From TrEMBL:
It comes from the Bacteria. The keyword Transmembrane applies. Keywords: Membrane, Transmembrane, Transmembrane helix. The chain crosses the membrane at residues 65-86, 98-115, 121-139, 159-178, 221-238, 245-266, 272-293, 314-332, 344-372, 384-406, 436-460, 467-489, 495-516, 528-549, 561-581, 588-606. Residues 1-35 are annotated as: Disordered. The keyword Glycosyltransferase does not apply. This is Uncharacterized protein.
Length: 777
């Protein structure tokens, strides 16, 4: 029996193990320093100061920073946290509670904004935080939630670890995104084409519901657009310019919520804060091993889309999917089965449905696996089946209503991702990829993923029936299968299945590795040593082989296998040595750690090279950036003048349909006018439209396909190339066009459009004309 010595008894004082002296106050740090070391405020202040410094350096106005911080706290975090305390109380750290509240607040905000936008008063979205504050102030039984319960204490290093992750996100965002995505025009015009496309979605959701494609007026928007509803709500509330909001501010809190809640999930599964830290680290570090000597396209297979700014829909949905899994586990484990828990589950999956429908088949597969595992153990799987029915209903609604039944460029084509990747690595056209090379690439994919997640195989062998293990195994099978069996009209969109499942797979792999290490008595030093050995192997093989991609002309494709063959030989020799020397099963845990160490190290040297490239582009990306000299001067000023002087329902026509500098052949991924003006354009670019996806055929390049309605395009262009009052009247009366936006570099000298008023505004190379009203009859 252990007794506690009376306070102040020198005979029973705790001894200092090193010197055998009584531990007295003189050996302790001053109380002020101890409180600072334990407090989460110093790391929080450090991160906030660093974020402000980085954002200010890259052009974010201080007024926008203050407005966004106030919105985040007052309109999302506080009301969301109050609701979480009332509906889903639990033993959490204070930061986990706030992160959960932010996730719930974001989800409610989306639905509230849709109702407000449909009513024609977008600022009515403020009604939900106002109603929440009123309820928690006026209803006596809710008032206690302002104080909350006593939070769970975290170790003193935990806040500093999270601060380190936040600093990494800021640094990588600055290196990979902020420096290549300036806010000032014309430099902003050199951004990747995906960014103005997303910005146009935000502008469309600011002014219209149901939304249409702003780049081709009249086409319905069959896309995952709930994330843009959140951004539109934030824009209305804060008054922040949409470009600043999307390209500087919005993703940081989303990633923060994701990290904190992923850590909460990792702590729940592994049982420790140390395990949670490993889960977060694995999620950001795990990638498909790339052992080539330069940056390359394999980096798209990282566990979290990096940087998160390039995929706002994925980032937003990933932030919501982690709390969905936490609530789902509460239901499946029987911890909470009340109506409030089910209401939270419904809220989260409904918003996920519209944010990124890719998560729904993953959830269905996971729930089917849980139900099968519970049935095999003769446990009634009613909750899993009920959640499965909910996810299935959401999937049907998403596919046939939100997405209009469109494929959106996905179809069954086994190993299409392997073919595209191998063609880029070998520097050959896709039709020239041989069957042997294709199979070799698929094997590398499978072995590369297994290298990072091999810890989960041990866990699956031992405890396949736990809800999290079964759920994650189901999602993983579907994610890997979709990545290998589906094709895409664009680059590698089937890889999003794997990106979406990667965080859960990383948590499962860490848990499995920790279980294996504990069972075989492997200490932390041995684990770190084996992981470090894997890192050394990957870096040494990369440097020794020196294979650069794409391969020089005439180099056989087998050269791509050289670094992987060397790594396989090293692992085989290590396995043979461990087998010969083993006296306990412990060496197998060392071998697993060695293989895991190869995975992240195989990708991150290439990632570091990408961060320091002047253009921030991966070495295998074949979509050339727009040259600064090709960007028209004055487009941003003209578009914003139009936004201030036109009605939201006005339709524009333009004489620019191709990306600047990519007119021969015409690359139709041009979206800047709709993005900056926040108005629908009769025909701007049409590459990423459901009609264009549906008409694509194998062998075609999506962005080079012609427009499917030649009459509309001809009427549009006639107003610029053969101007006449009749051409202008055709646009006005037949297509509802009210404004012409002309890039005067593409007009014949001295021939402005005829039959129009103006130009009403001219800036640089851009002139804006207003069509006259139709004559009275």
């Amino acid at each position: 029996m252990t007794t506690t010595p009376p306070a102040g008894d020198p005979a029973l004082a705790v001894r200092d193990g090193a010197a055998g002296r009584p531990a007295g106050p003189r050996h302790r740090a001053p109380r002020g320093l101890r409180s600072v070391a334990r407090s989460p405020w110093p790391p929080a202040v450090l991160v906030a100061a660093l974020a402000v410094a980085v954002l200010r350096h890259y052009g974010t106005p201080i007024r926008d920073l203050a407005a966004f911080a106030g919105y985040l706290a007052g309109c999302v975090a506080v009301p969301g946290t109050l609701l979480v305390r009332a509906l889903h109380p639990g033993r959490r750290t204070r930061l986990e509670e706030v992160a959960f509240g932010l996730a719930v607040g974001y989800a409610i905000e989306v639905l509230a904004y849709l109702a407000a936008r449909a009513a024609g008063a977008p600022l009515l979205v403020l009604g939900w935080p106002a109603a929440t504050y009123a309820a928690f102030l006026l209803i006596p039984r809710l008032r206690r939630h302002w104080r909350g319960t006593r939070p769970q204490r975290a170790p003193r290093w935990w806040a500093w670890f999270l601060a380190l992750v936040a600093c990494y996100v800021l640094a990588s965002s600055a290196a990979e995104f902020f420096r290549t995505a300036p806010l000032r025009w014309p430099a902003a015009g050199t951004m990747h084409f995906d960014l103005p496309y997303a910005l146009g979605m935000l502008g469309e959701l600011r002014h219209h519901l149901p939304p249409q494609l702003p780049i081709v007026a009249g086409e319905p928007l069959y896309y995952h657009w709930f994330a843009f509803a959140h951004l539109a709500a934030a824009s209305w509330i804060t008054g922040v310019e949409p470009m600043v909001l999307m390209f500087r501010l919005a993703a940081l809190p989303l990633v923060g919520v994701f990290v904190v809640l992923l850590a909460a999930l990792g702590r729940r599964i592994t049982g420790s804060f140390g395990g949670a830290a490993l889960c977060v680290t694995a999620t950001f570090a795990m990638a498909l091993p790339s052992l080539y000597a330069n940056a390359n396209g394999l980096l798209i297979w990282t566990g979290v889309q990096q940087p998160p700014w390039r995929g706002p829909t994925t980032t937003f949905a990933m932030m919501l999917f982690v709390p969905f899994v936490l609530v789902l586990l509460d239901l499946l484990d029987g911890r909470r089965t009340g109506r409030a828990t089910w209401a939270l589950l419904v809220l989260l999956i409904v918003v996920i449905m519209g944010a990124k429908a890719v998560y729904l088949p993953l959830a269905l597969a996971g729930l089917a696996a849980v139900a099968a595992a519970q049935a095999a153990r003769r446990r009634p799987p009613w909750r899993a089946l009920a959640a499965f029915a909910l996810a299935a209903a959401c999937l049907c609604y998403a596919q046939f209503v939100l997405l209009g039944g469109a494929r959106l460029g996905l179809f069954v084509q086994p190993l299409a991702a392997a073919r595209k990747t191998w063609a880029a690595l070998a520097g050959v056209p896709e039709p020239e990829v041989t069957t042997a090379a294709l199979l070799a690439c698929a094997v590398l994919f499978l072995l590369g993923w297994a290298a990072g997640w091999c810890g989960s195989l041990w866990l699956l062998r031992g405890t396949p029936g736990t809800p999290f293990t079964a759920f994650t195994a189901g999602t993983g099978v579907v994610a890997v299968g979709a990545a290998l069996l589906l094709g895409s009209t664009t680059t590698l969109n089937q890889g999003y299945f794997l990106i979406c499942a990667a965080p859960l797979l990383s948590v499962l792999a860490v848990h499995g590795f920790l279980v294996l290490a504990r069972r075989q008595g492997l200490g932390a030093k041995a684990c770190c040593g084996a992981l470090a050995a894997g890192v050394v192997v990957a870096v040494a093989v990369r440097a020794a082989c020196g294979v650069r991609v794409p391969l020089p002309p005439g180099t056989p494709w087998r050269a791509l296998l050289l670094p992987y063959a060397v790594v396989a030989a090293v692992v085989a020799l290590a396995a043979a040595g461990l087998w010969a020397a083993r006296r306990r099963p412990r060496p197998w845990a060392l071998l697993v750690a060695l293989v895991v160490g190869v995975g992240p190290a195989g990708a991150w040297p290439a990632r570091a090279m990408l961060m320091v490239r002047p253009d921030g582009r991966a070495g295998l990306e074949n979509d050339q950036r727009v040259a600064p000299a090709d960007v028209p001067r004055g487009l941003a000023a003209a578009a914003r003048w139009l936004r201030d002087h036109s009605a939201p329902g006005d339709v524009l026509a333009t004489n620019v349909h191709c990306r600047w500098g990519h007119e021969l052949p015409c690359d139709t991924r041009q979206y800047w006018l709709a993005a900056l003006a926040e108005r629908r354009v009769l025909v701007e670019g049409w590459a990423f439209t459901p009609v264009n996806h549906a008409r694509w055929r194998p062998g075609e390049i999506l962005q080079l396909r012609p427009f499917w309605d030649p009459a509309r395009l001809a009427a549009n262009d006639a107003a610029f190339t053969a101007p006449s009052p009749a051409a202008v009247a055709r646009l006005r009366d037949g297509y509802g066009v009210r404004w012409l936006v002309a890039d005067e570099r593409r007009l014949a000298p001295g021939t402005p459009p005829a039959g129009v008023t103006g130009p009403l505004f001219r800036a640089g190379d851009i002139a804006v004309y207003r069509l006259p009203a139709a004559p009275a009859r």
